[in-house]
Each structure stands twice: as structure tokens, then as C-alpha cells.
């Protein structure tokens, strides 16, 4: 009842103290803002059998600690997902889900097909969420101010459209030299400032395209 609807495309439920996502969201909503509330759980499909045509979803500054995106099969046009300022320690993208009418399990092969920007800043992640490569349109991922300790070679595997990675202000001590090797579209920034790197990263840097890329490495331990 306290949400504001402009009658066309903008639903603003920010600062309304809600603890769950309303089920009667206007079907024409393109922007949905649920920031600064008491939401602990977000289930994409709860109460919604039809597709949800929102493009920009803001869930920042809530109380979410665990989140699975494997059920988000009803958000075909979602472009930006803002999860900043929660308490997320587990973000699941690649868990097997039951196949329809079968006891077998299948891996989601296309997840949030239009998602371009995923922002998970100021949370409690210890690792890069597995399965980012399932987000086939992902161009920007922001994970600054978490507790990520190392970057493994498969963390950004199959992220063929990725252009911008922000890992600033984590606890990273180790980055595998092949981590960014196949990310041919990186052209904006790899931000590794304010981490715990102790040695230079020549192999990793050689594999990057310096003609298009900015790499930030200041305020590390070396």
C-alpha cells in the first residue's frame, strides 16, 4: 500500500519497511525499486506464474543472506540487478534443478538471458559466485567490498560478453594468471585496488588487451 506507482513503468517501494516482494506488481513495471527495506528472501517465481517484464530491479540495502537465481526463469528482459548492501554470503547460479515431469536433474543452460549488469557490492561473499558464465549477456559485474580471497581460472569462464569487472576492496591474495585470458571483450576496467596482493601479476597482465583496458592495482600489499 505504501509503494508508489507512476501509472506507467516505475514502481517505487523504497523505504516502505516491507519484508517481502508484493505479489500484485503492475505487469507493465519496467523499473522496480525495493531498496532500503527488510526483505530477507527473494524468490523470483513466488506468486508469479507469468513472465515479469521488469528491466531494472533494485534490491539493495535489505537483509538478504542467501540467494538462488536458478529459479529466475520468468525474468526474460531483466537488464540490471542491484543487490548491493545486503548480507549475501551465498549466490547460487549453477545448482541443478528438477527437469519438468522427470526425476532427473538438469543444469539451467540460459539464465536471465538479458542481464547486462550484476552488482553485489558490500556483501559477505568469500568467493566469486560460480556459474557467471550462464548469464550470457553479462557485461558488468561489481563485487567490491566483499571478502573474496582469491580468483580462480573458472570464476569468469564463458563470460564472453564481460567488459567491466570491479573487485576493489576485497581480501584477494591470489589471482590465477589465466583468469582473464579468454575475456576478449574486456575494455573498461579491471579494478583490483585495496586488496591483499603481495606479488605483481605479469602473466595475467600480459594476457590482457592494454589498448582498450584500464587496470587498477593500487593500495595492495606489495
TrEMBL record:
| Keyword Cytoplasm assigned | no
List the coiled-coil residues.
none
**Which superkingdom does the taxonomy of this entry point to?**
Eukaryota
Q: Which UniProt keywords apply?
A: Leucine-rich repeat, Repeat
**One Gene Ontology cellular component annotation held by this UniProt entry:** plasma membrane
SUPFAM superfamilies assigned: L domain-like (SSF52058)
* InterPro entries found in the cross-reference section: Leu-rich_rpt, Leu-rich_rpt_typical-subtyp, LRR_dom_sf, LRR_TM_domain-containing
UniProt entry tagged with the keyword Nucleus: no
Matches recorded under SMART domains: LRR_TYP
The record's annotation in Pfam families points to: LRR_1, LRR_8
The identity of this protein, by name, is LRC66 protein
- What organism does the UniProt record list as the source? Calyptomena viridis
> What's the gene?
Lrrc66
Amino acid at each position: 500500500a505504501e509503494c508508489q506507482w507512476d501509472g506507467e513503468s516505475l514502481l517505487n517501494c523504497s523505504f516502505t519497511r516491507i519484508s517481502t516482494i508484493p505479489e500484485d506488481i503492475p505487469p507493465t513495471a519496467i523499473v522496480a525499486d525495493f531498496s532500503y527495506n527488510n526483505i530477507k528472501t527473494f524468490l523470483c517465481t513466488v506468486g508469479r506464474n507469468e513472465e515479469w517484464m521488469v528491466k531494472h530491479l533494485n534490491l539493495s540495502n535489505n537483509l538478504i543472506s542467501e540467494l538462488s537465481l536458478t529459479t529466475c526463469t520468468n525474468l526474460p528482459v531483466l537488464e540490471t540487478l542491484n543487490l548491493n548492501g545486503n548480507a549475501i554470503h551465498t549466490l547460487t547460479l549453477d545448482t541443478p534443478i528438477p527437469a519438468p515431469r522427470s526425476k532427473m536433474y538438469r543444469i539451467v543452460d540460459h539464465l536471465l538471458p538479458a542481464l547486462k549488469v550484476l552488482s553485489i557490492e558490500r556483501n559477505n561473499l568469500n568467493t566469486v559466485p560460480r556459474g557467471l558464465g550462464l548469464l550470457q549477456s553479462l557485461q558488468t559485474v561489481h563485487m567490491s567490498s566483499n571478502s573474496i580471497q582469491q580468483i580462480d581460472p573458472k570464476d569468469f569462464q564463458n563470460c564472453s560478453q564481460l567488459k567491466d569487472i570491479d573487485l576493489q576492496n576485497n581480501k584477494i591474495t591470489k589471482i590465477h594468471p589465466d583468469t582473464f585470458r579468454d575475456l576478449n571483450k574486456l575494455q573498461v576496467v579491471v579494478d583490483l585496488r585495496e586488496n591483499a596482493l603481495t606479488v605483481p601479476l605479469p602473466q595475467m597482465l600480459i594476457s590482457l588487451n592494454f589498448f582498450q583496458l584500464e587496470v587498477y592495482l593500487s593500495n595492495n600489499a606489495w
